[in-house]
Amino acid sequence: MFVPLDRSAPDCEPLVGAIVGCALAIFLSVDGQPVNAQVVHTVNLLGTQFTPQDLSVDAGDTVRWVWQDGPHNVESGTLDGFVPLPDGNFRSGDPVFPPTAFELTFDLAFLQGHPMPDDVYPYYCIAHVPLMFGTVTVRRGACVVDADCTDQDPCTADVCNQGECRHDVVAGCCTSGAACDDANACTDDACVGGQCQFVPNSRDCDDGNTCTRNDTCRQGACRGDFMTGCCRVDADCTTEDPCTATACVDGTCVATPVPGCCAADADCDDGNSCTLDRCVGNACIHDPSDDPCDDQDACTAGDACLAGACAGTPIADCVPCFVPSDCDDTDPCTKDQCVDGRCVGSTLPECLDDDADGVADLEDACPQTPADEPADASGCSESQRDSDGDGVADARDACPDSPAGEGVDESGCTVPPPVPVDDMPGDDASEDEDDVARPAPRFSLCGALGFVGLFSLFAGWWGLRLGHAAARRVGHRGATIARRLRC
């Protein structure tokens, strides 16, 4: 085939290499596919040389001669010295200048129509005899075209691929029912018109599922009735609860809680009053709080939450306890108790000693002993001793031997008992219920009043002489006091 090259083809430059490339692109394909060829071989015409000079191709390949300068032509035949001997197998025409190309496909039809010994085709350029000549040797394969590969089997697609026949099996094609076995017990297999047919049946079958019963072929597949609660794999067990995991155990679905999963804040209670428990995305979050709390320790105060834990300030000298025996300090004079979780001790009454004189208050005859005075066994110091027991210390007692049971004055001396006084005229003083008991006058007091009375008499006499009314009144009062005291 002789084809002149078109310089107006897109992207073709006037340079020789570019012309060759564009020419190859034009003649290699139509819509991107090779033209009646499996492989295209290029031979360049330049000066007095075909490059390559001797070329070997497979049957079905195409050879393209491309003019790089000129004038040139391509003509099959041999040379006898300077004499060309054309054989008429192929000719591009008279010598011409580029851009020009000539191509020829050496397919089975060409080979059969133009046979040559050993399939070697010589050629030359008539303008440059005897310098410019070459050969094309064709290697025949098992085939040239697909028709060369027909095996008369309707179930194969016969293809000639690079000189080799390939017989691809046609899907679904058959020659007998045996060729249509789909290994499915629920279909009846047959070959009809070269095509396999698979007709569903309703035979009994086994679907291999232990959780189904009444297995039969249905719509070309073995199916059974599912038994509620039965399972084969974990996927058979489902739940809508995100906090429950299901698994198939011995053919039964078993549900177990998902550790740490939650559906509401209430599910996240960790029992710690110092955390704020929340459920976020089915996961529990425990944020520390700073709220007041109780650390259950009686020996701390000001309890508060800190970093998710309850802690308080220790109370000095505090001993925690659970039972009274935790508080025993082995001191016989203390009463040890466990009160609100901590030990509380108190001194026993029989051990109290308020004045710290070494004598217990219950046995201390003098409970107010001064701190700087030693006490005797009764708890009394020298300044507190009262030998006669009249309530007046010996150091202040004017009468240290007062009889027991008799009243004494502040000086420690006895006071005479009261004497009844008849205050109703005509009554017996000893019988009258309205008699008034008056203290008996002491001798010393009457003596003193007697002196006063003498003085008053003297004053009254002196007043008579002097006529002084005041003196007379003094004398009169003195006499009256003495009479009332019955001195």
Give a description of the structure:
This protein is mostly beta strands and 487 residues long. Among the domains are: 2-139, Immunoglobulin-like, CATH 2.60.40.420; 171-227, no CATH class; 324-384, no CATH class; 445-484. It has 4 helices and 28 strands. It has helices at 16-28, 108-113, 443-466, 469-484, and strands spanning 2-4, 29-30, 33-34, 40-46, 49-51, 54-58, 62-67, 75-80, 83-91, 100-105, 120-124, 133-139, 156-161, 164-169, 187-192, 195-200, 212-218, 221-226, 244-249, 252-257, 275-280, 283-288, 300-306, 309-314, 334-339, 342-347, 418-421, 436-439. A 5-stranded mixed beta sheet has the order 1-10-7-4-5, covered by helices on one side. Strands 6-12-11-8-9 form a 5-stranded mixed beta sheet, with no helix packed on it. Helix 3 runs antiparallel to helix 4. The chain is elongated and about 205 Å long. The termini are far apart.
Helix content: 10-25%
Q: Helical segment tally?
A: 4
Radius of gyration: 74 Å
Please state the structural category: mainly beta
Short description:
This protein is mainly beta and 487 residues long.
Features:
487 residues, mainly beta, Immunoglobulin-like, five-stranded mixed beta sheet, 12% helix, disordered C terminus
Topology record:
Blueprint lengths: L1 E3 L11 H13 E2 L2 E2 L5 E7 L2 E3 L2 E5 L3 E6 L7 E6 L2 E9 L8 E6 L2 H6 L6 E5 L8 E7 L16 E6 L2 E6 L17 E6 L2 E6 L11 E7 L2 E6 L17 E6 L2 E6 L17 E6 L2 E6 L11 E7 L2 E6 L19 E6 L2 E6 L70 E4 L14 E4 L3 H24 L2 H16 L3
Parallel strand pairs: 4-7, 6-12
Antiparallel strand pairs: 1-10, 2-3, 4-5, 7-10, 8-9, 8-11, 11-12, 13-14, 15-16, 17-18, 19-20, 21-22, 23-24, 25-26, 27-28
Helix pairs in contact: 3-4
